[in-house]
């Protein structure tokens, strides 16, 4: 998993639904005033002095067009002592900008980092102490109720990322609830399947692919690094054979050979048994259109018959 993606996934959830920060605050038993809309705000707190202050995300809650509460959202993957100096700047600048009460909400996927981030920050003036609101992995609910999962896709995705990275009964239940919610989620609403799959360990993601066989398309799965790696390797092999042949027919045959190898590799990695007859049929096929179809099916099929149709 890339460090950037690991840092950005919660920001992406909030970007899609800014009011999701109120759900996170609720998990910490922090109330918010009634509001009509939640809008993303300017994350730049740079002052005239050439020192850059940039938060991860800002959400402003408005009632009848007026700001009633603003939230600075920060994601911390590891402790950073400098944050004790910059976080108060964020809040003071945002409070002056929006003319409303402000909150600092920090998310950390690491329990130890969450504890460190929650330490009060003494600003020096008597009584002026900033205690960050911190949501760690233990504060993210494990969503296993399908009704809640369908109603709150952002929370369900966060739950799957935080709690679905193992094989315990509870972790498996979280992932299965996520998969079932995707299969039933209303049209036009994000499922976050691609985001979750990219953030889970490879072995867990492969098992989840099986659960999502009817809910995630081949195009979705092609964004997964490990799936794309298999296909690209197969295509590179095919192109190399084609170049060695030096003819158009050779390139076509090379590509077919590469795609056939990719299909078998994907099925092997997903634990799908392949009969000798099925293997021979795949390797003997030279029609790239057919191979493309089989390749798409291999990403989600549960047995070889579903691939060869």
Task: Give a quick rundown of the structure.
This protein is of the alpha/beta class. Helix content is 54%, strand content 11%.
Describe this structure as you would to a colleague.
The chain has 309 residues and is of the alpha/beta class. It folds into three domains: 3-139, no CATH class; 146-216; 225-308, no CATH class. The protein is 54% helix and 11% strand. It is built from 15 helices and seven strands. It has helices at residues 3-16, 20-27, 83-98, 111-117, 146-151, 153-163, 169-184, 193-199, 202-211, 218-221, 225-245, 248-269, 276-284, 288-298, 304-308; strands spanning 37-40, 57-63, 66-75, 102-107, 121-122, 129-130, 133-135. The strands form two sheets. It has a five-stranded mixed β-sheet with strand order 1-2-3-4-7, with helices on both faces. A two-stranded antiparallel sheet has the order 5-6. Helix 6 runs parallel beside helix 8, helix 11 (225-245) packs antiparallel against helix 12 (248-269) and helix 12 packs parallel to helix 14 (288-298). The protein is elongated, with a radius of gyration of 24 Å. Residues 241-251 have low confidence and may be disordered.
